[in-house]
Amino acid sequence: MKAHEATYSGMIGWLKYGAVICFLLAFFVIWLIA
């Protein structure tokens, strides 16, 4: 169970950063098109 919690915590952290990176990437693409 302990290992599972660590993996889950790591995944949440990566998802958070991934969401921010995706948002910035989308904003950049929209800025390029506009």
From TrEMBL:
Annotated transmembrane regions: 12-33
Domain (Cytochrome c oxidase subunit IV bacterial aa3 type) ranges: 2-32
Stored InterPro entries: Cyt-C_aa3_sf, Cyt_c_oxidase_su4_bac-aa3
Organism superkingdom: Bacteria
Keyword annotations: Membrane, Transmembrane, Transmembrane helix
Pfam families: COX4_pro_2 (PF07835)
Protein name as catalogued: Aa3-type cytochrome c oxidase subunit IV
